[in-house]
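re: ur question from yesterday

yeah so i grabbed the chain u mentioned. its 279 aa long if i counted rite. heres the sequnce exactly as i have it in my notes:
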Amino acid sequence: MTVSAVWGVLYRFCNEDDFVIGVCGSLIVIISLFVIINLFYAVMDLTGKPAFLTKYRIQDDQPIDPEKYKAALIRAVLNIAFCNVPLTILHYHLAVWRGVQFGYDGIPDLFTAVWQLIVILLFEEFGFYYSHRLFHHPLMYKHFHKTHHEWTAPVGVVSVYAHPLEHVLSNSIPLMAGPLIVKAHLSVAWLWYAIAIVNTLNDHSGYHMPFLLSPEAHDFHHLKFNNNFGVLGILDHLHGTNTAFKKTAAYKRHRIMLSFTPANQLFTEYEESLREKNN
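ran it thru and got these structure tokens back, copy pasting raw so excuse formatting
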């Protein structure tokens, strides 16, 4: 089936109601991905099994406290319920105002979808980098961002474990604004949400899995706090906010691993520095 045909099925299932597909459909996409992927990580985090996957944990000397995990999960659920649901409704009304299309008409060709996704991604890099650095300002960090950094060895649910103000301004608005700016069809917005959610969960997972994008940069950010503020690394490079990271074995590992050998077995000096820090 073509993309248009699949979207037609979804649109008819929603009774051709733009609000239903724009709000309810978007929330189903976002929440389903968040839950399914985090269930996968939670099994590994809380049971330490299966060993053939948990061996890829980056900070493997940091045990996970189930009670701390539970608290993070509760905060994450509250942020989604009381921040993302209202924001999705607001986003729908802004999309209508912008003339975004939800139905059969306006489904873009491949070229249009690709350039829109590129622009959206660049806006995410810009919006997240500068809002993230703002929350690292001493006046902001103490009252807001410190919550997120309670986890120096992050796990998947920590991606939305944050003060509600930070979750709205730094996590959500840069994510949702891009599709509005380029007037992307809802199908492109859903694809973008899927990409962004998979990426942020991978970045916070604590696992450097083979053949997946590397989470080393953001894992290092949680460990050291003062490097790697962005998503792509472009603005970190321009502002010099990844210089300490570039001197570590974590930087050497910051690539797609094309081997089933855990990255921390290929580059050991970073792990040795972690052990020295904790001794």
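noticed a couple things. The first helix runs from residue 3 to 13. also The radius of gyration is 19 Å.
anyway ttyl
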